[in-house]
Amino acid sequence: xxxxxxxxxxxxxxxxxxxxxxxxxxxxxxxxxxxxxxxxxxxxxxxxxxxxxxxxxxxxxxxxxxxxxxxxxxxxxxxxxxxxxxxxxxxxxxxxxxxxxxxxxxxxxxxxxxxxxxxxxxxxxxxxxxxxxxxxxxxxxxxxxxxxxxxxxxxxxxxxxxxxxxxxxxxxxxxxxxxxxxxxxxxxxxxxxxxxxxxxxxxxxxxxxxxxxxx
Length: 215
Fold this sequence. Notes:
This protein has about 220 residues and is mainly α. It is built from 7 helices and no strands.
């Protein structure tokens, strides 16, 4: 809330100051013999020149921009001071009439120069360094080559301990022998591990151990 109040106060102050300056420029132009719409055009001309100069100063601080900024500031500030009672607006001196009458041409010149002034060129990039010449090798006296680095072979990974063979009960071996005999009689070939495992419903390692004993 306090930040919003300060922002509104600044805007109100800017509007009031701009309106007063605008009215002073109008009154001075009207007192100098510029009547009708011409008296209202003078404040617009001064304020637009100030805006154009300020936009130029935001991008570059050239001497030309500062010169026209001073010209527009003197025109605005002079009108405010002249209408503060220091100048008799009913009897404006001739030199002030000449300045007011010549202002449009002066403002047109300043606006044109600011609009067509080329932007300041960007600084040139640093030149690329010249390539270094290749070293000259003397074939008659070649330099000794550096010894090749010794390649160390990685050590083999330690062997994993093998699981002990499962213990087969003798009764299971006798039953498996009967199943194997039946399989040989029926098929004419020895029973394999997968078939014995399926017939007995035992783990694969146990079936392999039994087949090894039956061989």
